[in-house]
Specification:
The chain is of the alpha/beta class. It has one domain. The chain has 4 helices and 7 strands; from the N terminus they run αββββααββαβ. Strands 1, 3, 5, 6 and 7 form a 5-stranded mixed β-sheet that branches. Strands 2-4 form a two-stranded antiparallel sheet. The longest helix has 18 residues.
Length: 162
Protein backbone atom coordinates (compact mmCIF):
# COMPACT_ATOMS: atom_id res chain seq x y z
CA UNK A 1 0.00 0.00 0.00
CA UNK A 2 1.35 3.41 -0.93
CA UNK A 3 1.39 6.09 1.74
CA UNK A 4 -0.66 9.27 1.35
CA UNK A 5 1.41 12.14 0.04
CA UNK A 6 -0.02 14.62 2.53
CA UNK A 7 1.74 17.74 1.25
CA UNK A 8 0.80 16.97 -2.36
CA UNK A 9 -2.82 16.32 -1.35
CA UNK A 10 -3.01 19.64 0.54
CA UNK A 11 -1.42 21.55 -2.33
CA UNK A 12 -3.92 20.01 -4.77
CA UNK A 13 -6.88 20.76 -2.48
CA UNK A 14 -5.94 24.37 -1.79
CA UNK A 15 -4.57 24.93 -5.27
CA UNK A 16 -8.05 24.18 -6.57
CA UNK A 17 -9.23 27.13 -4.46
CA UNK A 18 -6.64 29.43 -6.03
CA UNK A 19 -4.01 29.29 -3.26
CA UNK A 20 -0.30 29.04 -4.00
CA UNK A 21 1.64 25.90 -2.99
CA UNK A 22 2.58 25.90 0.68
CA UNK A 23 6.15 26.94 1.41
CA UNK A 24 7.47 25.09 4.43
CA UNK A 25 9.55 27.08 6.89
CA UNK A 26 12.93 25.56 7.64
CA UNK A 27 14.46 27.01 10.77
CA UNK A 28 18.17 26.35 10.84
CA UNK A 29 18.93 28.64 13.78
CA UNK A 30 16.69 27.20 16.52
CA UNK A 31 19.06 25.72 19.08
CA UNK A 32 18.50 22.42 20.82
CA UNK A 33 18.24 23.24 24.49
CA UNK A 34 18.29 20.66 27.25
CA UNK A 35 16.10 21.29 30.27
CA UNK A 36 17.76 23.18 33.08
CA UNK A 37 16.01 21.08 35.72
CA UNK A 38 14.39 17.65 36.02
CA UNK A 39 11.08 17.12 34.24
CA UNK A 40 9.54 16.45 37.64
CA UNK A 41 10.15 20.13 38.48
CA UNK A 42 9.04 21.64 35.15
CA UNK A 43 5.98 23.75 34.42
CA UNK A 44 4.46 22.31 31.23
CA UNK A 45 1.98 23.84 28.80
CA UNK A 46 0.31 22.62 25.59
CA UNK A 47 -0.40 24.14 22.19
CA UNK A 48 -2.74 22.51 19.69
CA UNK A 49 -3.26 23.76 16.16
CA UNK A 50 -6.24 21.47 15.62
CA UNK A 51 -9.10 23.99 15.51
CA UNK A 52 -10.01 23.28 19.15
CA UNK A 53 -12.02 25.89 21.04
CA UNK A 54 -13.95 25.91 24.26
CA UNK A 55 -17.70 25.72 23.69
CA UNK A 56 -18.07 29.23 25.15
CA UNK A 57 -15.62 30.62 22.55
CA UNK A 58 -16.28 31.25 18.87
CA UNK A 59 -15.53 28.25 16.69
CA UNK A 60 -12.49 28.35 14.44
CA UNK A 61 -13.12 28.70 10.71
CA UNK A 62 -12.63 25.09 9.51
CA UNK A 63 -11.10 26.29 6.23
CA UNK A 64 -8.97 29.04 7.78
CA UNK A 65 -5.92 30.54 6.17
CA UNK A 66 -3.56 32.92 7.97
CA UNK A 67 -5.44 32.50 11.25
CA UNK A 68 -3.18 33.83 14.00
CA UNK A 69 -5.86 33.51 16.68
CA UNK A 70 -4.53 32.07 19.92
CA UNK A 71 -6.94 31.06 22.68
CA UNK A 72 -5.78 30.71 26.27
CA UNK A 73 -7.33 27.71 28.01
CA UNK A 74 -7.48 27.53 31.80
CA UNK A 75 -5.64 24.45 33.06
CA UNK A 76 -8.66 23.32 35.10
CA UNK A 77 -11.20 23.32 32.27
CA UNK A 78 -13.45 20.28 31.85
CA UNK A 79 -12.31 18.08 28.96
CA UNK A 80 -15.93 17.86 27.75
CA UNK A 81 -16.03 21.65 27.16
CA UNK A 82 -14.50 21.66 23.68
CA UNK A 83 -15.51 21.74 20.04
CA UNK A 84 -13.36 21.07 16.99
CA UNK A 85 -13.80 22.91 13.71
CA UNK A 86 -11.04 22.01 11.26
CA UNK A 87 -11.34 20.60 7.74
CA UNK A 88 -7.63 19.79 7.45
CA UNK A 89 -7.71 16.44 9.25
CA UNK A 90 -10.05 13.65 10.32
CA UNK A 91 -10.90 14.53 13.92
CA UNK A 92 -13.53 11.88 14.63
CA UNK A 93 -11.32 10.30 17.32
CA UNK A 94 -10.62 13.69 18.89
CA UNK A 95 -14.36 14.43 18.86
CA UNK A 96 -14.77 11.36 21.09
CA UNK A 97 -11.69 12.10 23.24
CA UNK A 98 -10.22 15.61 23.15
CA UNK A 99 -6.97 14.22 24.58
CA UNK A 100 -6.10 13.00 21.06
CA UNK A 101 -5.41 16.60 20.02
CA UNK A 102 -5.33 18.46 23.36
CA UNK A 103 -4.01 15.98 25.96
CA UNK A 104 -4.92 18.09 28.97
CA UNK A 105 -6.13 15.16 31.09
CA UNK A 106 -2.94 13.20 30.38
CA UNK A 107 -0.89 16.26 31.38
CA UNK A 108 -2.84 16.57 34.63
CA UNK A 109 -2.22 12.88 35.33
CA UNK A 110 1.50 13.42 34.79
CA UNK A 111 1.45 16.30 37.28
CA UNK A 112 -0.53 14.25 39.81
CA UNK A 113 1.94 11.36 39.55
CA UNK A 114 4.96 13.69 39.86
CA UNK A 115 6.28 13.00 36.35
CA UNK A 116 6.10 16.75 35.69
CA UNK A 117 6.21 19.59 38.19
CA UNK A 118 2.89 21.18 37.32
CA UNK A 119 0.54 22.10 34.53
CA UNK A 120 0.94 25.73 33.46
CA UNK A 121 -1.88 28.13 34.34
CA UNK A 122 -2.76 28.41 30.65
CA UNK A 123 -2.86 25.90 27.81
CA UNK A 124 -3.25 27.09 24.22
CA UNK A 125 -5.11 26.51 20.99
CA UNK A 126 -4.35 28.43 17.86
CA UNK A 127 -2.27 29.03 14.76
CA UNK A 128 -4.93 26.97 13.01
CA UNK A 129 -5.00 26.44 9.30
CA UNK A 130 -2.54 27.19 6.58
CA UNK A 131 -0.43 30.21 7.45
CA UNK A 132 1.07 31.85 4.38
CA UNK A 133 2.17 35.07 6.07
CA UNK A 134 4.98 33.46 8.06
CA UNK A 135 6.69 36.80 8.63
CA UNK A 136 3.80 37.75 10.93
CA UNK A 137 4.40 34.56 12.96
CA UNK A 138 8.13 35.24 13.19
CA UNK A 139 7.81 38.94 14.02
CA UNK A 140 4.49 39.31 15.86
CA UNK A 141 2.39 36.34 16.97
CA UNK A 142 5.29 33.99 17.73
CA UNK A 143 7.12 36.45 19.99
CA UNK A 144 3.84 37.42 21.70
CA UNK A 145 3.18 33.73 22.38
CA UNK A 146 6.72 33.29 23.72
CA UNK A 147 6.12 36.25 26.05
CA UNK A 148 2.92 34.62 27.35
CA UNK A 149 4.80 31.37 28.01
CA UNK A 150 7.49 33.27 29.92
CA UNK A 151 4.80 35.10 31.90
CA UNK A 152 3.43 31.68 32.95
CA UNK A 153 6.98 30.51 33.79
CA UNK A 154 6.66 27.60 31.34
CA UNK A 155 9.71 25.37 31.13
CA UNK A 156 8.39 23.02 28.44
CA UNK A 157 5.78 23.40 25.70
CA UNK A 158 4.18 20.31 24.16
CA UNK A 159 3.11 21.21 20.61
CA UNK A 160 0.32 19.03 19.22
CA UNK A 161 -0.03 19.84 15.52
CA UNK A 162 -2.92 18.63 13.44
Amino acid sequence: MESIKYVDALNDYYGAMGNPPYRWTINETAPLHRLDKPLSECVVSLLTSGGVSQCSMPAFDPDARNDHRLDAIDRGVDAADFQIHDSYYDHRDADRDINCILPLERLREMADSGEIGKVADRLWSGFMGRIYNRTKVLEETGPAFADALQEDEVDLLVAVPS
